[in-house]
Amino acid sequence: MSRQRRDSADAPTTRLSDGTYAQIVESTFTTGYELIVDGTPQSHVDLDDPTHLHFEYVARMGAVIDQLRMPGQPLTAIHLGAGAMTVPRYIEATRPGSRQQVVELESALVDLVRGALPLPKGASIRVRHGDARAVLQAMPAGLKGTADLLVSDVFAGAQTPAHVTSVEFYREVSTMLAPEGVLLVNLADGPGLAYARRQVATVRAVLPHVAVLAEAQVLKGRRFGNLVLVASAQPLPLEWLPRLMAAGPHPAKVATGREIDEMAQGALVVMDVAAVASPKPDAGIFGR
After folding, report:
1. d(CA 260, CA 256)
2. Are 274 and 219 contacting, i.e. CB atoms less than 8 angstroms apart?
3. Which among 75, 51, 77, 73 has a CA at the least distance from the CA of 63?
4. Cα dihedral 130/75/2/131 (nearest 10)
């Protein structure tokens, strides 16, 4: 999350299907641009340097992506939620030749981003329009079981919709992953981490090997912020841990093993019938 943004009446803007507005503005204290949706910073893009990951949680995702397969080796990746396509741009820059699928409900948002922040020429980034879960179910059979990476970063405004938080959803996600494929989930939660704990328990019911990356105070449940959940059907290599810690942003914390057991302890696995959206942050977090 970021507070470094500047609203502008002249900035590219579009209205989304729910009546809210998306706008692309120049970043105030760093290079590049930010996508703001309903007043919430959603993405940051630096067209001159796609490896510049300004938002903390995205930088943590990048640190995990850097560990997948051999450095520079192309990946097969699926992204649920487009934003400004920061992560697809990062993968294209660091792993040219990667095959990527991006799923986004809001066609107007995709048009806004492509118009104001064009994708790299020649990049194999296909955008599929529709609800993340519905499109996932309709993916070509040839893609099933091939994804080295699946990123779930679906937000409606400042909240993750309920239907992409359940064990049924994560079972569908798992069918897309290669045997050693990795799931990355962007979670936003506040003090106590009740939502994040349920998500850890839910994901672990499908993909048993889980780690969580966050700023230390967020992971301790002391303030609202983003957590990156990493999950796989196969053990996550322990040699990743020092690299992930060193990559930051600092102060960085990576929870694994017993800490994950403690996070999930007593937390109910989320089923479709009882799923709820992620907690909505206080407006003050974004300086509104």
Report:
1. 5
2. no
3. 51
4. 10
Sign of CA dihedral 130, 131, 137, 142: positive
Q: Structure tokens of 79?
A: 């992204």
Place of tokens 């920061």: 86
Instruction: Give yes or no for a contact between 278 and 189, defined as CB atoms under 8 angstroms apart.
Output: yes
In a 10 Å sphere around its CB, with 0-12 CB exposed, 13-18 middle and 19+ buried, how is residue 222 labelled? middle
How is the chain split into domains, by residue range?
54-279
- Extract the residue ranges of the chain whose pLDDT is less than 70: 1-9, 283-288
> pLDDT per residue over 161-202, tens digit each?
999 999 999 999 999 999 999 999 999 999 999 999 999 999
DSSP symbols for the chain:
--------TTS-EEE-TTS-EEEEEE-SSSSSEEEEETTEEEEEE-TT-TT---SHHHHHHHHHHTTSSSTT---EEEEE--TT-HHHHHHHHHSTT-EEEEEES-HHHHHHHHHHSPPPTT--EEEEES-HHHHHHTS-GGGTT-EEEEEE---BTTB--GGGSSHHHHHHHHHHEEEEEEEEEEEEE-TT-HHHHHHHHHHHTTS-EEEEEEEHHHHTTSS-EEEEEEEESSPPPTTHHHHHHHH-SSSEEEE-THHHHHHHTTPPPPPGGG--PPPPPPGGGGT-
pLDDT value of residue 287: 47
In angstroms, the CA 54 to CA 117 distance is 16
* Cis peptide bond prior to 237, omega within 30° of 0: no
CATH number of 54-279: 3.40.50.150
Residue with tokens 């992953």: 177
